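can u pls check wat happens w/ zinc ion
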Amino acid sequence: MSQKLYVAGEFYGIQKYVLGITAAGAGQAKRLRARSFVVQVLEEIAVDELGELGDIQVVMSGGGQFVLALATGEDMRARLLAFRAEFQRRLFEELGGELSFNLGWAESEADARRARAGERRRPWAAIMTGPDGWIHKPMRFSDIFPPCDVCRKRPATEEWAADGPPESVCKRCDADRRIGAEIPRVEGVRLTEQNAEAHLLGRGIRFVRPGDGGPGRMLHRHVPVHPNGNSLVTFEEIAAKAIGDDLLGVLKADVDDFGALIARHSQAGSLEELHRISRDLDGFFSAAVQRMIVESPEWKPAVYTVFSGGDDLLLVGPWDKMLDFAAALEQAFSAGPGRLYNLKLSAAVSFMPPRIPIRHGVERAEEDLKKAKAGSKNRCVTLHGVWGWETLRRTLGEGRELVRWWECHAANRDVLRRLYRYTTTDKPAAHLWAWELRNFGSPRFEEARLFRLWGKAVLANWEKPSREETRAALLYALTATRTRSH
Ligand SMILES: [Zn+2]
């Protein structure tokens, strides 16, 4: 008889849940962060309650999933079955099926993960099926009336008028609003039955604020806050910090082949190593990345964390700053866990106007990230191309150089726009580019001479892939020099 049982759990559909809000306006930033926080706390609650079943050892945890080693007793499997059914029931009751919880267990770590993956195919099975077969749905659509203005998943029972037009919301969204208001000051949570400030799955929560003494786990994720320290900066205000066009950049990044790495260690039974790697990766995404943002006077007021932990992150900021951040992120990753464990990072930065729901930009970034993963990976997809990290840095440098030439009137927007058009068409465009070069103006001053030299160098390499880089650099410059629409 084995003395250990491995338990693998995950909250499934996190991104959809976090972004599944109807708000596009001022409330969006606050609600997204509140939901992301709720997911972090759910993970704490699940691990905490599994700890009550017996001695646990955390193999890995972060980003909404965990693997634990549980000292098994006689009836442990029966107790896990009961725990899963009860936890799913509470989750369904509170979130209305927006987020699912899968839990699997086995005598080996690899088998526990397989069991968990199997649960994905039958979400809610534990609460939807009884001894006599399928049970009727706990909540029918007709019960959801009037629907909550924020989630549209639960009946509205509360009224708000505080921030913006009045809205009818459900109990959960009302609680999220209060959490959202606390977010700028919250560093973590403590599960408690006394003096609870909020409730989740029937558990009392006390927020841990700076100076309260460190929580077991940093739940703090940076979001830009107004100087008064109380209200979040809106996505419109973040976009206004961009150079040129008021666009947001949605940065999605994750570790390449992490699943394969887990599978390898898990098959080999090298769980100590797996524990170390996942702890270091979670440390990188949850703490090191956050430090990078907070310690930079340029990023701190502009970079918004939707989530960051486990092996991935989703950040939103001014488009130009997110491009720089992506490059810096990769550098920090390569110098840190990347070098230590021979891991690479892929990312996508997609641009979007700030007045539409963030999920549209996230969907784009997700599609783009797939393009990076489909090829040789270790790439960043942005500015209409798939780039190696060094190429991206070079292209951003070239783009900034073009902006500088524009600023000192060595290049004007019409020229940049025409040059961009030539790079997007095929061969004959080289003649047009050459013709344009003659009209660059007399190089009376140094910057104009440099701009012309750059144009000649592009022409000399016309047939090479570097033309793609030139196109991306021009796109960067055009976006950076677009006058604001208002
Ligand atoms: Zn709601």
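The longest helix spans residues 271-294.
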